[in-house]
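User: I'll paste a sequence; please echo it back and then give the predicted structure.

Assistant: Echoing your sequence first, then the prediction.
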Amino acid sequence: MSDLAAVLFTIAFVLIAAFLAAAVAGKIARLDGATYPAALLRAATAFAAVLTLATAVTTALADVLG
């Protein structure tokens, strides 16, 4: 697998994981009785958290390996 393909696959995987985390967070918020805007805010927060965590892990690995 080429380096570009690995990078694109990893980006796709992280985005899918972030979307799934956001969907689950929004659904759990609605089941908990939150309004639609509040559930959307929780979903957006979860999406941003997953992307932030992925960025932090990538940066740490780049520092260690590079």
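Residues 3-60 form one domain. Residues 36-65 form the longest helix (30 residues).
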